[in-house]
């Protein structure tokens, strides 16, 4: 039996704007295995969040529209489910932690009410059962005096505690897949470290698979087993974490890793910066989307967009150039 939980093939998502259609996701394919943590990295606007929101059918339509692709979860295509069917998957079997906990929580409902609702909806609990389980969940994510805090409102929690509430809410129905969209971005570094440790502990205890969206390769190094690097709505490199740091093979990935400060004393000169800006995708790229910013660029890069091809057993890259030699592949 296959251990693949989620299998996404050829996903394309567009947004209609006054200036034209923005091609946000352009034929993305990937899979997620049981119990695996998959990191998805890239700078803002590269398509990370839109890809995962598309899989969960959370793209606002209009202006967004999924125009192609398949997303098989437990043998069923999520993109072909009815609205009612996908509602029973979201929250129960696949859950998402959103980027900003203050705007994700309803400010006029108590924390208890917001935690109890999915338990009653998806698991059929009574009000009393849901209340008991909600207190257990808050305790599990490290919130003291959990039973008393259920009657508090979001503004009575700190930023780190609100993020813990979001994690508790996402885990409430024991999902098979947890998608975390840059959940530590707005938090200070000590709280970030606590949230990361919490997620690792819960992953090991509950055995769920995780997709962790971030722009921080340092976070990925400490959490994920496998990484997707995205740029311009494409996956441009896919690898195990160890191989990605040891052998980055796309110029963009090399730039991302070069921009990280080192703590081992091996920093050579200034931090690397990638010149230029990410593309605005009013046209689906026919050439390599990274070509205007690439120091290894060659004629073929301007004419043809490379496909994501294997360079070893668990490492794929979309680039016409072998960055080690500077020659064409």
Strand content: 25-35%
Q: Give the termini distance in whole angstroms.
A: 36 Å
Order of adjacent strands in the largest pleated sheet: 6-7-8-3-9-10-12-11
Rounded to the nearest angstrom, the radius of gyration is: 21 Å
Number of strands: 14
The outline comes out as globular
Describe the main β-sheet briefly: 8 strands, mixed
Residue-averaged pLDDT: 87
Q: What count of helical segments does DSSP give?
A: 12
Structural class: alpha/beta
The percentage helix is 25-40%
Low-pLDDT stretches are none
The secondary-structure element order is EEEHEEHEHHHHHEHEHEEHHHEEEE
Short description:
The protein is α/β, with parallel strands linked by helices and 329 residues long. Helix content is 33%, strand content 26%.
Explain what the structure shows.
This protein is α/β, with parallel strands linked by helices. The strands form 3 sheets. An 8-stranded mixed β-sheet has the order 6-7-8-3-9-10-12-11, with helices on both faces. A 4-stranded antiparallel β-sheet has the order 2-1-4-5. A hairpin with a 2-residue loop joins strand 11 and strand 12. Helix 4 crosses helix 5. 37% of the residues are buried.
